[in-house]
Amino acid sequence: MGWFWKFLNFVFLERKFDKDKANIIKQLKALAEKSKQHKSGSFWIVIFPEGTRLRPQKLKESQEYAKEKNLTVFQNVLVPRIKGFQITLNTLREDVDGVVDLTIGYPQLEDDKRVQKGKIRPSVQDLLFGGGKKWHVHVHVRVIPVKEIPEETEAVQDWMMKVFEEKDKLLTHFKQHGHFPGEVYKYKSISMFQVLANFFGFGLVAVSVMYFLSVGLLPTIGGLLRLVWSK
Fold it and tell me: Which of 36, 28, 37, 33 has its CA nearest to residue 9?
């Protein structure tokens, strides 16, 4: 699994910020430089400011923390953490145009037996072995220009809390109406064949790279490709 994450440019952590800070900056700068070598010159990085999955116990703990710190008490999201977001944005501020803010909702269809059993979100097992069953998902999207996001810690904290206050309201609206406010765009779902083709295609490439690394052939192949390309 670690190799897959490495190939996808995951930022590796020890979950100890004092130790991770320098490593995070180093990996983010490397990612930005690597993107400049490609024609598009673009890249994206995913951050979950809540830091963990939303579960009843975690929500309760988050609400208690918010009351203790005199923060807004959320009903649908956790109190966000800003360290990872702040260091990422401040490191990449000159390399990115904005932040794409996503809020995800799963409609609770009354005739869906899975929902009747209290299951409204797909698990990893459902996604991999769901037997072709479809899960409906709504995603609220907005783009926030980098220039609108502050840099100082306290200002970032206030800004992030306002963002999550809006998320909490969006999810409350979603629960009441079954959709987010605003214009709706429907996207065509991809087939199981496309999913499997992507999965096994990427897996084949990853396994091949690991094999060539293990036998020491990858540098040789890379050199030959550069030689052919230069001609």
Answer: 28
